[in-house]
Amino acid sequence: DAGITQSPRYKITETGRQVTLMCHQTWSHSYMFWYRQDLGHGLRLIYYSAAADITDKGEVPDGYVVSRSKTENFPLTLESATRSQTSVYFCASKSTGVSYEQYFGPGTRLTVT
Amino acid sequence: DAKTTQPNSMESNEEEPVHLPCNHSTISGTDYIHWYRQLPSQGPEYVIHGLTSNVNNRMASLAIAEDRKSSTLILHRATLRDAAVYYCILSPLYGGATNKLIFGTGTLLAVQP
Predict the structure, then answer these.
(1) Fewer CB near the terminus (10 Å): N or C of chain B?
(2) Are residues A101 and B46, on separate chains, in Cβ contact within 8 Å?
């Protein structure tokens, strides 16, 4: 399917476990982003990537790891999940050039018990 | 990053115009004004963006004050589907090549039938 997809859509995990959230886009966009959304905070940028093998921290990177070996994929890993990482996670992508529009995925709702 | 101020919530009636204000008094000369919206249980979606001149597209219009310290998103005829959180975001033209979006808490628009 064309577009940007996230998997899983829902995930429950236990404190201390490692969990990876997947993001896949079919547009070959250079830029990809991970946000988290919590009540009262809007969306906060966790990590972003300008191209394959280029990643950088956003506003709230602690406790998260990203990689981007292929342009189309941008997985987000919680190495040791904590309850404070219970949130809805959104992935987004953006092309280079004159377009400034970010395209968001449907989100992953993660609960850490 | 320059900050935006939006009302927490607004109400509108269906088929009437809606004017969503945004104040950004510390905007710099190279900041674009972006508007995104987030429908319930979905990821944000792009609405419109502009730099200095008023902009129109199929979804909305963006009116930018002459001094650029404020802007207004105009929905010409609100529908029930327009009920969402609307985010006004500033992003620099040359934002470290990322065009990062820093989301605030936005305006929750309720549309009454």
Answers:
(1) C
(2) yes
